[in-house]
Amino acid sequence: MVKVLLTGGSGFIAAHIVDILLQHGFHTVVTVRSDEKGKRIIEAHPNVPKEKLSYVIVKDVAKDGAFDDAVKSNPPFDYVLHTASPFHFNVQDPVKDFLDPAIKGTTGILRAIKEYAPTVKRVVITSSFAAIVNGKQHPKVYSEKEWNPVTWEDAMDHSQVYRGSKTFAEKAAWTFVEKEKPNFDIATINPPLVFGPIVHYLNSLESLNTSNQRLRNLIQGQMKEKIAPTGNFLWVDVRDVALAHVRAIEVPEAGRERFFVVAGFFSNKELADIVRETHPKLESKLPPADSPSDFPENIYEIDNNKSQKILGLKYRPLKQTVSDTIDSLLAVGA
């Protein structure tokens, strides 16, 4: 029996990871912030025996010792997938509200595992393209080799604080392993915008992940007059990101590696065109078919070879992802 702790179990990516872990035969324990969320996850898997899926409550991932009890288990854990990130709506102090919690949440769980869960062989951490991207000077090709050059000072700017938090948290994880030399190794998963079907028992139209909000806005007519700027032109399907996390514990060679998990490029105009094709009934909500695209003429390249070679990922096409996502949004009343 191989046992896995999955933090942030009610998150968008984590909800898909739960399904893959169970399909692959792992005994799974998820951390959640409340009893209510934990019960919803259990109820959504009625055919899974209770020893195969359970939950523990971690109310605040940034608190000192937050994970100390969660990582203690009998039988003990073999792997940890850390997707949890600090949760709040109101950033007033970038350090107190965002940077400290992101960094402490990551180093806190690594410290707890080192101290109380010596059987853990690998920890897989959800990082982000935010820790790779260089907004000031894009390289010719983006791959795992790139790091966001954001400084602590840059991160005091509210528009930079999210990218800063992801960059500093991931760097803190690599530094921890280097200095503390624990029994486990780590791998990080770095996706850009994550589209894909929502998990109905956890999500409402109000609680969507940021990437899917643009698809909701599109089919609710919020871009009918004018397509919003695309911003970041890279995307990936949530099911591919979830599989990447699980493959990163199954494949020995994935240890000590960073994975840029990215399917390709898109623009908001392309999203609108796909919805028009796959869901013609939504035509009246969409921007005109001849709306211009803001996709740049010269854009950087991407290199996702490592994720394909080591993790064996085969990325879903954008059309399938968008169509499946729209179906799932319509099912909850979009």
| Strand coverage percent | 5-15%
The helix/strand order is EHEHEEHEEHEEHEHEEHEHH
What percentage of residues falls in helices of 4 or more residues? 25-40%
CATH architecture: 3-Layer(aba) Sandwich
* Topology-level CATH name: Rossmann fold
- Count of distinct strands: 12
Average pLDDT across residues? 95
Pfam family, one: Epimerase
Protein name: NAD-dependent epimerase/dehydratase domain-containing protein
GO molecular function: oxidoreductase activity, acting on the CH-OH group of donors, NAD or NADP as acceptor
InterPro entries: Epimerase_deHydtase, NAD(P)-bd_dom_sf, NAD(P)_dehydrat-like
Tag the structure with descriptive keywords.
334 residues, alpha/beta, Rossmann fold, 7-stranded parallel beta sheet, 3-stranded mixed beta sheet, Epimerase_deHydtase, NAD(P)_dehydrat-like, oxidoreductase activity, acting on the CH-OH group of donors, NAD or NADP as acceptor
Overview of this structure, please?
With 334 residues, the protein is α/β, with parallel strands linked by helices. It has a single domain, classed as NAD(P)-binding Rossmann-like Domain (Rossmann fold). Helix content is 35%, strand content 14%. The chain is built from 9 helices and 12 strands. The strands form 3 sheets. The chain has a 7-stranded parallel sheet, with helices on both faces. A 3-stranded mixed sheet has the order 8-9-11. Helix 3 links the parallel strand 4 and strand 5 (122-126). Helix 3 (94-116) runs parallel beside helix 4. The longest helix is centred in the N-terminal third of the chain and has 23 residues, at 94-116. The chain is globular. This is NAD-dependent epimerase/dehydratase domain-containing protein. Residues 4-259 form the NAD-dependent epimerase/dehydratase domain. It holds the Pfam family Epimerase.
